[in-house]
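Today's session is about reading a structure prediction critically. Students often jump straight to the picture, but the first step is always the sequence itself: look for stretches that repeat, for charged clusters, for runs of hydrophobic residues. Only then move on to the predicted structure, which in these notes is written as discrete structure tokens rather than atom positions. Here is the chain we will use throughout the hour.
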Amino acid sequence: MRAGHPGRRRVRPAAEALTTLLFAGLLAVLTTAPAHAAGYRYWSFWEGSGGSWSYATQGPATARPADGDAIGFRFAVSEDSRNAAKPAAAPDFGAVCDRTPTKDGSKRVAVAIDFGSAADAPAGETPPAARTACAQVGKDASAGDALAAVAKPLRYDSAALLCAIAGYPKTGCGEQVSGKESSAPSASGSGSGSGSEGEDGGPSAGLIGGVAAVVVLGAAGVWQARRRKRG
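Below is the predicted structure for this chain, in token form.
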């Protein structure tokens, strides 16, 4: 009779409580909102190489493109250079500069300017349409000189950071924005998450799997305890 097994009445509430607690823990992990890292709203500088864009290793004031080179600029919100958004237009010198005749003592540089998306724009501003232009400048001209030749006015801050191209944006310069504002897609499509967070800042598959394993083991322990009591 059930009255002859008082232990069964004690095990079931404890077992059910343990199982409930373990599943609650798993649910908490699965429903945790991913944490988004803050980013910066700025103009990034790119150099064309082999038909694709490479993040420039120096600033436009010191970079010296050669005749036939392509340079690009992209305004976006990015966490760092690893996930910075690239200019939408391909670095195609021929498509941009073939109609510009050569001139003695000068060089031609294809310039791609991508003003970014509305999501990247500062409050109250609308990004102009992306454009390309062929800059014809002196042979010793910098990338900044080439940009100035086709996209004035430029704006720099006191530390020589490029803040605006063709007057966009009107204000601000490399300001930090919250993770909720940062919506620019990753250029490489990869991240470097570690620890208990995944690549998107949320809980990693390893952490979720670990909690799930604890739930399974806990449930197995409850089942074994019930078998022993029944025996």
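Discussion point for the tutorial: The first helix runs from residue 6 to 30.
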